[in-house]
Every structure is written in structure tokens, then in C-alpha cells.
Amino acid sequence: MSSKDGAKKPEALASGIESKFERIRAGGASVGIIGMGYVGLPLALTASDAGFPVVGFDLDDAKVRALNEGSSYITHIAPEKVAGALNSGHFRATADFEELRQAEIILICVPTPLTPQREPDMSYVKSTAERVASKLNPGQLVILESTTYPGTTADLVRPILEGGDLSSGRDFFLAYSPEREDPGNPEFSTKRIPKVVGGDGDTALALAVAFYEQIVPSVIPVSSTGTAEAVKLTENIFRAVNIALVNELKVIYDAMGIDVWEVIEAAKTKPFGYMPFYPGPGLGGHCIPIDPFYLTWKAREYEVPTRFIELAGEVNAAMPHYVVEKLVASLNDHAGKGLKGARVLIVGVAYKKNIDDTRGSASFKIIRLLQDRGAEVLYHDPYVPVLPVTRDHPLLGGMTSEVWGEALFANLDAALILTDHDGIDYQALVERCPLLIDTRNATARFDPVPENVIKA
Hints:
By secondary structure, the protein is of the alpha/beta class. It folds into two domains: about 5-225, 3-Layer(aba) Sandwich (Rossmann fold); about 240-455, Rossmann fold (3-Layer(aba) Sandwich), CATH 3.40.50.720. It has helices spanning about 5, 15-25, 40-50, 60-70, 80-90, 125-135, 150-160, 200-215, 225-255, 260-265, 290-300, 305-335, 360-370, 405-410, 425-430, and strands spanning about 30-35, 55, 90-95, 105-110, 140-145, 175, 195-200, 220, 345, 375-380, 415, 435-440, 455. The strands form two sheets. An eight-stranded mixed sheet has the order 3-2-1-4-5-6-7-8, with helices on both faces. It has a five-stranded parallel sheet with strand order 10-9-11-12-13, covered by helices on one side. Strand 1 (about 30-35), helix 3 and strand 2 (about 55) form a beta-alpha-beta unit. Helix 9 runs parallel beside helix 12.
């Protein structure tokens, strides 16, 4: 369904709404985007590139200062892009949420993590909605982009925004459009990815569609905000389940002496009925490891089991342990050495190649498992000079990346490739490290694969 077919503008609209449509289509409507992270900043730059006047809101003064100086704190977003948006006069950042009153369109791009009990942590969405509610003016369009469970927009955000005298669909307008960012993907930047949109009523949907039509190649309207929320979860659960499948196949084929990577490369030559997914040391990122739990949590409210999804989660969660056990067995077989006291280099801590994003990275879990078993662990990642403090692994915060070179390779017992960044001299690693555990098939370029390389 195209935006032209699916988002029909209501027949009778107040003159103020008519003028809002006109300002949006002309690129003149003012936009406020809350959260200048991996989702909000690319969205802000995309909207400003389209000519919209954009203000980026963030509680982090350091981020605000960096953006207003034309700097970028996200590796795959070039400082030149930020500086260009600033110089155009279409973008600036602020920590003053009083300015939300002037925004005609407000987009919420804040984190939706899990609690330690693996339940949705809606504190960021809730507190942001409360901030917006305190500044909300008649006629404003509010769009939630944070990944969440079906019903969040209608059951959590709308009641908060309606806490005063304003009513959704009459005084202000509410919609949901899930973010579809793929950090570091050069083929699909924000402005090249279609947007799914659900509205709280026809007018809200039509306004949100009109906005996104100005900044992305196509817009797909759906029947409700809940449907749009379910679309995002479906996309990521699809990936989580298929990654779990190839991770399980990896373990099975390894026991049979078969290289799962070779199997996948051959299987993907089939021109129909097959889509390649790749194994790894465990899931990473902000979405794929988290989104399945949002749906399983919500499904319990309806007494519906989610056995398939939960099983996939168990398989993926076991991968760090599998990698460590593979290292233990390989150390014993190749060097007659135990893990305790072994000097182990981790190559790559970002959750995917060529970015600096460590959110949910399996590398953190693997480092802790190795340390807990007495190994001396070092890491090298050209994109992550210092490990951040995280809720799950606070003790790793402050650990620094080692300098790549002969001094690093000296006295290593083993290395684990956990992120296959481009630009790393894998040849040097293969030649100088007595044992290399490759979880990303980064050594596939060597033919034949050296005897000291073990795939895991």
C-alpha cells in the first residue's frame, strides 16, 4: 500500500490543520527531535537536509556542545555532515526543553532497554513523554520512534500527553514510526530507508505521512500505532530467530567437521527460497538482542506462549559460552595449556564491523567469562579506544584498546576475532599468534586456512 492510497486526508479539516499540511509539504514546519543518539542524530540531519528547521534536544550537555561546534561523537557520521547542517541554518542542538513549545513536529528517539529482569524498561519513554506533555501546545504532532511493544503509543504515551486539557486527535496529533537505522551501512542511510507509519486517528496519520514523505523515499501507512510497533518487532525477531538457526547449525556442523560458512556460501547461490544469515559470537546491538523480549513480555498479558522466540533467545545467549569452550578445547589441543593464566587478545569489541557502537556486544560477556576463568585479557578495536561503563559489565569500564603491533603479539597464547573490522592486518595476526579463534570468518581470505586458525 502506498502512502497515496493508504493515508487519506480527512474531508473536513480545520484551517489550522490545512496550513500545517502546507508548511510540512513546503519543508517549513519546525521539527524538534528528542535524543541525539544513533537514531535521533541521523534523523535530524536527514530532516535538515530536506530543508526543515530542526532543533535536536538532549540532556547530555557534552553532546549538545559537540553538535553546536560541528563535531560528531558517532564514528559513522562524519563531522562534515554535522557542520554542513549547522552552516545551512537548518539545524542546532539544545538542552533547553522549553523550546519544545515552538516545535510543530516532535519526534521521540530515546532508548528502550531491558531491566535486569529482562522486562521492558520504559523509563526513558515515560519521562520524555512527561517532558513533552508539560510543553505541549495545540496543533503539535508527536511521533514516537523508539522500538517498543505493541500498545506503547496508545496505552502509555497518549495518556501522559492527555494528562492536561489536550486530547489526541482533537488538540494534538500522535503517531508511531519505528526507526530502521543500520549504523555504518553505506547503502542504506536514513534518507534511503522507507518508513512505516501508524497514527492515532486519520489526521495524525496523514500529518505524519506528509512529513516523512519529504525526507525518505517512500512511506508505508498502516492501520494503527500498534500495528506499526509490531512491524518493528517482527523485523528484528525475524533476524534473531534466523541468526539462532545458523548459530545452532554452526555447532552441529562443527561436530561433523563441516564448515558452516562454506555451507552458507554455497546455499546462497540458490536464486529463490533461501536468504543467508551468518553465525557469530552472540547477538549485539540495541535491537535484535532486546526486541524479542518486548514481545514475549507483552504476549504474557494475553496468555499466549512464545516458545519459538524464547528458544531462539536461548540459542543466541549460549554463543559466548560456546566460543569460550571452543577456546578452552583448542588451547588444550594445540598447546597443552589451560585457560587460567593464558594471555588472550580480543580483536573487536563493537557489536558489528566498522562502527564504534558497543551496545549489547557479545564481546563484553566473553571478556568477563575469560577473566572469571583466570585468563589475562587484552583487546584491540580501532573504533573503541576505551570500553564504556555498562550496567551488565561495569567492571570493564575504562579498559583501553592495545596498540596493534609486535609488542602486542609478543607472548600471546591466543586471539579471538569477535568483530571483523576492515583495515585490521589479519595476516600479521595469523603469522604471529599461535592460536586464533575466528567467529566471523575473517580468515576466509587465506587459502588454505592456516592450521592455527579455528572457526567458532
